[in-house]
């Protein structure tokens, strides 16, 4: 998942054991019009906590739409375990915001280690009528209080393309950290190999990935779920780039 020391830090969606998991990244966003000022976003990279397993067994009183899934957790070079996460899906006639409000009292009583918090990644599907991607649920992660990077650490952000395993071009958000932030990130990754990081945009997890080794060069490359069609992914990554890029208008976008 991660390259050698000078390669970009590529954040990919965490792999789950259950094929039914369907971990999608955040839904598609619309590209801002050329004469509109891009909306600024919050950007955080936080350390995830893979030690607790608060949904195994599932606490009593789970609301409708809650299901459990398992994913692989790497504890060491030769130590692999599983942890349980949950998905909340909307019920008939319900919006995602309504579903989250309905489930909030249950999520709020989940017991976590001191300083930890529940984080959520949005699950999207294409509306058969409007052909737009809409939020249909969320899945959980457990985040620590350790915030590794914020928007203040971003030196530049651009939209680019990179080949996938089949050599097909895929859109990516390419982030260059400020010099001192890149050095701090390199030190953090050297000290936290095999731990997971989560990338949050406006408080929502868009990516989670495991640190394979020390990351030098201060570069982060964010890609979205390849199951999302190319153009919605590209539009959402463009929205992210415009929202976190410091100052000025974004550079020209690369062609598809």
What features would you highlight for this structure?
globular; 4-stranded mixed sheet; 3 helices; 7-stranded antiparallel sheet; disordered N terminus; single chain; 256 residues; alpha+beta
Can you lay out the helices and strands and say which pair or pack?
Blueprint: E1 9-11, E2 43-48, E3 66-76, E4 79-89, H1 96-108, E5 117-126, E6 133-150, E7 154-163, E8 169-177, H2 179-191, E9 196-201, E10 204-210, E11 219-222, H3 230-244
Parallel strand pairs: 1-11
Antiparallel strand pairs: 2-6, 2-9, 3-4, 4-6, 5-6, 7-8, 8-11, 9-10
Mean of all residue-level pLDDT scores: 84
* N to C succession of SSEs: EEEEHEEEEHEEEH
Structural class: alpha+beta
Question: In the CATH classification, which architecture applies?
Answer: 2-Layer Sandwich
Individual helix count:
3
CA gyration radius, whole angstroms: 18 Å
Helix content: 10-25%
Reported for the largest beta sheet, the result is: 7 strands, antiparallel
CATH topology annotation: Gyrase A, domain 2
Task: Specify the CATH class.
Answer: Alpha Beta
Spans where pLDDT lies below 50 across 5 or more residues: 1-35
Give the N-to-C terminal Cα separation: 24 Å
Task: Tell how many strands the DSSP assignment holds.
Answer: 11
Give the tally of structural domains. 1
Shape descriptor: globular
Give the strand content: 35-45%
What do you see in this structure?
The protein is α+β, with helices and mostly antiparallel strands. It has one domain: Gyrase A, domain 2, CATH 3.30.1360.200. 16% of the residues lie in helices and 37% in strands. It is built from three helices and eleven strands. It has helices at 96-108, 179-191, 230-244, and strands spanning 9-11, 43-48, 66-76, 79-89, 117-126, 133-150, 154-163, 169-177, 196-201, 204-210, 219-222. Strands 2, 3, 4, 5, 6, 9 and 10 form a seven-stranded antiparallel beta sheet that branches. Strands 1-11-8-7 form a four-stranded mixed beta sheet. A hairpin with a 6-residue loop joins strand 5 (117-126) and strand 6. The longest helix has 15 residues, at 230-244. It starts with 8 loop residues before the first strand and ends in a 12-residue tail after the last helix.
């Amino acid at each position: 998942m991660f390259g050698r020391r000078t390669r970009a830090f590529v954040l990919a969606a965490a792999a789950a054991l259950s094929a039914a998991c369907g971990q999608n990244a955040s839904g598609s966003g619309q590209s801002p019009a050329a004469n509109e000022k891009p909306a600024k976003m919050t950007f955080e990279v936080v350390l995830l906590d893979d030690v607790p397993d608060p949904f195994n067994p599932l606490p009593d009183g789970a609301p409708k739409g809650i299901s459990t899934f398992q994913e692989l957790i790497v504890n060491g070079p030769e130590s692999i375990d599983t942890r349980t996460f949950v998905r909340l899906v909307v019920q008939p006639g319900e919006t995602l915001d309504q579903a989250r409000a309905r489930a909030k009292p249950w999520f709020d009583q989940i017991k976590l280690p001191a300083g930890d918090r529940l984080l959520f990644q949005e699950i999207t599907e294409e509306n058969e009528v409007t052909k737009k991607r809409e939020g249909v649920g969320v899945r959980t992660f457990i985040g620590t209080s350790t915030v590794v990077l914020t928007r203040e650490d971003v030196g530049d952000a651009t939209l680019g393309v990179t080949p996938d395993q089949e050599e097909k071009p895929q859109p990516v958000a390419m982030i260059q950290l400020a010099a001192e932030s890149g050095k701090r990130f390199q030190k953090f990754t050297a000290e936290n190999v095999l731990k997971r990081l989560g990338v949050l945009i406006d408080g929502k997890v868009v990516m989670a990935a495991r640190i394979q080794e020390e990351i030098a060069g201060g570069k982060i490359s964010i890609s979205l779920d390849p199951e999302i069609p190319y153009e919605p992914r590209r539009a959402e990554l463009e929205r992210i780039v415009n929202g976190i890029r410091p100052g000025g208008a974004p550079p020209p976008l690369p062609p598809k």
